[in-house]
Write a structure and sequence with these properties.
Layout: H1 2-16, E1 23-31, E2 36-44, H2 46-50, E3 59-63, H3 72-76, H4 80-86, E4 89-93, H5 112-127, E5 144-147, H6 151-161
Parallel strand pairs: 3-4, 3-5
Antiparallel strand pairs: 1-2, 2-4
Length: about 160
């Protein structure tokens, strides 16, 4: 009898807890501007894989802070749950150790504004089922970014220019 009660208890726990089935992928995105590739974390909502394969999803670009990396958000937060909850694709590109997401006027190897603002967006729109940035730009509410620590400085700049 105790085993049956324990089974019912476990079943009740499983049914009452939300199920987070998002998928996390690390992709390598090439940069023509910097002539190398950088990793990025992409979090796909559960319905991306299970649902209508013609469906397209909005994208939120989540920027790490100064000294961070593309892995910060997934390593230090539960951000993946947001992809399932809000049915969005989350993209966390590598913005360099301390690039501030700008194109350096002095270092041709530091073109992070071009990379994050154009090359990453183009790659994501080409390789994933997204609502393309070219169809719905920042001013139309589609192109969302979040930032952390030094990221807001880059985020404000990118929001105004892209």
């Amino acid at each position: 009898m105790a085993i049956v009660r324990a089974c019912w208890f476990v079943l009740a726990l499983l049914l009452s807890a939300p199920v987070w089935a998002y998928q996390t992928r690390v992709v390598s995105i090439p940069s023509a501007a910097m002539q190398r590739s950088f990793d990025a974390t992409v979090v796909l909502p559960d319905d991306y894989a299970r649902g209508n394969h013609a469906a397209r999803f909005p994208v939120i670009y989540v920027l790490h802070g100064s000294g961070g990396s593309y892995a910060d958000w997934t390593s230090n937060t539960r951000i993946g749950k947001l992809a399932d909850r809000y049915h969005v694709v989350l993209v966390m590109p590598d913005g360099g150790h301390e690039s501030w997401y700008i194109d350096s006027p002095f270092d041709r190897g530091s073109r992070y504004e071009t990379y994050v603002g154009s090359e990453v967006v183009s790659y994501i729109d080409t390789h994933f089922r997204t609502i393309a940035a070219r169809d719905h730009g920042f001013e139309h509410g589609r192109f969302r970014r979040a930032a952390h620590r030094a990221g807001p400085a880059g985020d404000v700049r990118r929001g105004r220019q892209h």
